[in-house]
Design goal:
about 15% helix, iron, binds zinc ion, globular, BsaP_C, metal-binding, 3-stranded antiparallel beta sheet, about 70 residues, alpha+beta, Biotin synthase auxiliary protein
Length: about 70
């Protein structure tokens, strides 16, 4: 899948516009479903981080949403 050059997802999450649907019990789990469109996202997981990409809304990386 080609990752679109789009930061819509990152923007929406980081601005607090949408709640990031992380499971509080498993905060290091990557999200599987794009909260903007409900599409399944392509997820890459490495030991310390994850990366999730929606084919429409672009990429989100765990280090961007860590507090
Ligand atoms: Zn999406």
């Amino acid at each position: 899948m080609k990752i679109p050059d789009n930061d819509e997802l990152a923007e929406a999450v980081l601005s607090g516009e949408i709640a990031w649907p992380l499971d509080p019990a498993r905060p290091y789990d990557a999200p599987r479903i794009c909260p903007l469109c409900g599409r399944r996202m392509v997820v890459k997981i490495s030991p310390m981080s994850w990366e999730a990409a929606c084919s429409r809304h672009g990429l989100l990386r765990s280090e961007w949403v860590e507090r």
